[in-house]
Specification:
This protein is α/β, with parallel strands linked by helices. The chain has 2 domains: about 190 residues, 3-Layer(aba) Sandwich (Rossmann fold), CATH 3.40.50.2000; about 170 residues, Glycogen Phosphorylase B (Rossmann fold), CATH 3.40.50.2000. About 40% of the residues lie in helices and about 20% in strands. It has an 8-stranded mixed β-sheet with strand order 3-4-2-1-7-8-9-10, sandwiched between helices. Helix 6 links the parallel strand 9 and strand 10. It is globular and about 65 Å long. The relative contact order is 0.13.
Length: about 375
């Protein structure tokens, strides 16, 4: 198949969406498919044998790591040269509107996927009054697609409840070869704890954005004797968080990649994840693959991944002491914590990227067979 993939974010940016898309692109290429990636300009021209067409954009004022790329006629010319069989738009917003437009203009089958729970994000940036307006825009965009994919059953239900049609589940995926429990190391503990490797090490990995509610980790840190916190990642809320955590033993690590990131997961005593806006929570799967005990909010797509008391602990995000109590319970029960680690790894092993991408390819084939266009498998 020849797939034109429109995405509002791609490399060199680092986040869960980019992680999913780059693994998907790699697996599609391995399966013999050709992929054209249309994304905001980032300097890259290809990835894993697939062409990248960068579209000029400008930084989002509240979120400068994200670029808004405006569709232009050059996209149409690129598509006519590539001759795709199908268009896939990830998170249709600005550039994705070009994907919707050209799919209709060229009479191509269209798949859209929902990765970022933007309506919930609005509340964390003082724009909650616009939630219904945004749902209306999302409906008008997604309902043009032949198929809409979500990465958790909770988000499938959420989209359907807001009038989005033809919704199905795109199963989770994680790199179980990269993230492994044996990568735990004294050197990484020393690095993350800033020279205090014998202290209890709490870890958060992900975007440093207001919507992630990272401030909710501070009471946990303060309640655990001799605990230290490592925040891995970056984002627009970093400066505010540095001020908020200034009087605590918190290390703002910045981005980690590859084996360094895998070692960070495996070396922590607990992974704390308070976000209530996750469509899935890919970092949770990575932590599970690394055998890291989890404490996470019972919200969004997270219960699809974490089974309370089996492979991690869930807490009620409306309970101010919920995360504290769950973390204290986790750390107080070494035997149970070891069971959670083993179960977490076992659960992650079920969800390799090859299987997730094969499911996606099957969706593509179904859409192609239902259209009047010949399949070019």
């Amino acid at each position: 198949m020849r797939i034109a993939l429109f995405t509002e974010t791609f490399l060199p940016k680092i986040d869960g969406i980019v992680t999913r898309l780059r693994h998907t692109v790699e697996q599609l290429h391995r399966a013999g498919d050709e992929v054209l990636i249309l994304c905001p300009e980032g300097g890259l021209k290809e990835y894993k044998g697939c062409t990248i067409y960068g579209v000029e954009g400008f930084p989002l004022p509240m979120y400068p790591e994200l670029k808004l790329a405006i569709p232009h006629p050059g996209i149409g010319a690129q598509l006519e040269r590539f001759r795709p069989d199908i268009v896939h738009v990830a998170n249709p917003a600005v550039l994705g509107l070009g994907g919707l437009y050209y799919a209709k203009k060229l009479n191509l089958p269209l798949v859209a996927s929902y990765h970022t729970h933007l309506p919930q994000y609005l509340h964390h940036y003082g724009l909650g009054m616009l939630e219904e307006v945004l749902w209306g825009l999302l409906r008008s965009g997604h309902n043009q697609a032949d198929l809409n994919l979500c990465t958790s059953s909770a988000m499938v239900s959420e989209l359907r409840s807001h009038g989005i049609e033809r919704v199905d589940l795109w199963q989770r995926g994680v790199d179980t070869e990269m993230f492994q429990p044996y990568l735990a190391s004294a050197e990484m503990r020393d690095r993350l704890s800033q020279g205090h490797p014998d202290c209890t090490l709490l870890l958060y990995v992900g975007r440093l954005g207001a919507e992630k509610e990272i401030d909710q980790i501070k009471p946990v840190l303060e309640a655990i004797p001799n605990a230290r916190l490592a925040l891995v990642g970056d984002g627009p809320h970093r400066q505010a968080l540095e001020h908020y955590f200034a009087d605590t033993p918190t290390h703002f690590v910045g981005y980690l990649k590859g084996l360094d990131l895998a070692a960070a997961y495996a070396s922590a005593d607990a992974f704390i994840f308070p976000s209530r806006t996750e469509t899935l929570g890919l970092v949770l799967l990575e932590a599970m693959a690394a055998g890291t005990p989890l404490v996470a909010a019972r919200s969004g797509g997270i219960p699809d991944i974490v089974t309370d008391g089996v492979n991690g602990y869930l807490f009620d995000p409306t309970d101010e002491q919920g995360a504290v109590a769950a973390t204290q319970k986790l750390l107080a029960r070494p035997a149970e914590r070891e069971m959670l680690r083993q179960n977490a790894r076992r659960e992650a092993e079920r969800w390799g990227w090859a299987a997730a991408t094969e499911q996606l390819r099957n969706y593509y084939q179904i859409i192609l067979s239902q259209s009047s266009l010949p399949s070019a498998a």
